[in-house]
Structure formats: structure tokens, C-alpha cells
Task: inverse folding
């Protein structure tokens, strides 16, 4: 266990929950007075909190950042991320079939990230850069580590992953749960928070890039593409389960 990882584990859960309550009150106030706001603001506030708590850890942070691929290879991270991307599309197609509508703006908008109120280049950067850092620090760095103290590691993984998934939209809840399990396994195997942060960054970068590039919504409106992606989603899900099974006992 690295010194930086130990410092993350020592961040107060009570303080973090208190910050969440304050942010919820802020959002309620903004909504009540019809004040427009972006989730980017919330991310920045939470990130500022972590920067303050870890302000004396620059050297340890630098070491962890440089050793991000020392225990988990880039190839493995890329492999798992791509599988999750394909599987996520399968779940989006499934949710569309349940709702009997193809409204990719509302369903795809919650694709593995907290995208509420995000728009333009600022929103893209927030989802790709801020979201992975903040969410991994919270759900793997804090929740997973705190839960491991009171319940077995397997239950800690499942509970923290459920908490992560609960913040996502209908079309991506289950895929987010599977994604979170993979991130937890990466973190526990590497003992380096930058491993899931990088994987999360890569996932959001690919997902958001596809979303913005697919302006004609071919991935949702072309039957052949939908069929091919659905087959890939099934194959990806099987391979993801195989990855989870092969790494579960190692942690």
C-alpha cells in the first residue's frame, strides 16, 4: 500500500458526507430560484476538497502517477474499457426497447458519467477529465476503502459499485455497476488510485467522443449497426464476466 493511497484512505467519510449535504442544499437552492448551473461546479468543489486534504502529498502523488502501469498494463486497461463500451451500448439498446422510444439525447446523456447540466467543450472536458478523478476518489478511494473495514472485500466491492451505479440513468445503471466492479478490481490489484482514474478517463473519452461524432445517430437508427453492436455487446459481457471471475479471488 503506497503512502498516497494511505492518505486517501484517511480522508474523513463524515466530512465528505457533510460536503455532499451542503452541495445538495446548494442544488436545491439553485433549482428553487431557477438559477442555471453546471455539474462542473460541483465536481470542482469536490476536487478542491480532495486537493486540500491531500495538499502535502505531491511527492507521493507523482510517484503513483508515474507507476500507473506497473501492476496493470495499458493493454489490460484498454481491453476492459473497450468491452465495457460495447456492453454499455447493448444496455442502452435494451433500455430503448423497454421504453419503445429512441431518444438518445435523454438516455445516452447519462452514459457512465454525471452529465447533468453539461454542454459544449466545457461539458466534454468535465466528463472526460473531472468526472474520472472525482468519482474514483469518492467511490474507490473513500467508499470502497471504508467499507472494507466493516465488511468483507467482496461485499465492499458490490456495495460501492451499487452506490456508483445508482447515480446513473436508466439506460446505464447495470453497465455502470459492471464498470464499477472492474474499476474496484483494478484499484485493489494495483493499490494505485490512478489506475481506475486512467481507465475511467479512457472510458469517458471514448464514450463522449462517439456521442459527439455520431451526430446522425447511426448507432441508434441503423438496424444493421444496432444488430452488430448488440452481438458485440453480448460477447463483451461474457468476456467482462470472465475478467471479473479471473481477478475476483486475487483481491
Result:
Amino acid at each position: 500500500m503506497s503512502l498516497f493511497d494511505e492518505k486517501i484512505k484517511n480522508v474523513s467519510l463524515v466530512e465528505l458526507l457533510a460536503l455532499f449535504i451542503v452541495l445538495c442544499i446548494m442544488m436545491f437552492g439553485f433549482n428553487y430560484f431557477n438559477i442555471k448551473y453546471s455539474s462542473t461546479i460541483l465536481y470542482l468543489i469536490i476536487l478542491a476538497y480532495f486537493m486540500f486534504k491531500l495538499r502535502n502529498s505531491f511527492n507521493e502523488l507523482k510517484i503513483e502517477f508515474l507507476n500507473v502501469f506497473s501492476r496493470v498494463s495499458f493493454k489490460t486497461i484498454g481491453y476492459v474499457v473497450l468491452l465495457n463500451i460495447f456492453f454499455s451500448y447493448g444496455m442502452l439498446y435494451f433500455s430503448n426497447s423497454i421504453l419503445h422510444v429512441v431518444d438518445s439525447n435523454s438516455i445516452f446523456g447519462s452514459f457512465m458519467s454525471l452529465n447533468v447540466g453539461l454542454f459544449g467543450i466545457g461539458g466534454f472536458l468535465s466528463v472526460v477529465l473531472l468526472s474520472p478523478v472525482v468519482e474514483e476518489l469518492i467511490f474507490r478511494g473513500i467508499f470502497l476503502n471504508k467499507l472494507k473495514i466493516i465488511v468483507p472485500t467482496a461485499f465492499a466491492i458490490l456495495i460501492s459499485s451499487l452506490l456508483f451505479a445508482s447515480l446513473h440513468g436508466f439506460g446505464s445503471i447495470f453497465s455502470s455497476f459492471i464498470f464499477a466492479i472492474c474499476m474496484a478490481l483494478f484499484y485493489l490489484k494495483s493499490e494505485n488510485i490512478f489506475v481506475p482514474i486512467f481507465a475511467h478517463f479512457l472510458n469517458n473519452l471514448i464514450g463522449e467522443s462517439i456521442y459527439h461524432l455520431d451526430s446522425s445517430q447511426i448507432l441508434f437508427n441503423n438496424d444493421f449497426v444496432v444488430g452488430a453492436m448488440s452481438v458485440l455487446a453480448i460477447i463483451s459481457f461474457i468476456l467482462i464476466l470472465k475478467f471479473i471471475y479471473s481477478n475476483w479471488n486475487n483481491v
User: Anything to note?
Assistant: The chain has twelve helices and no strands.
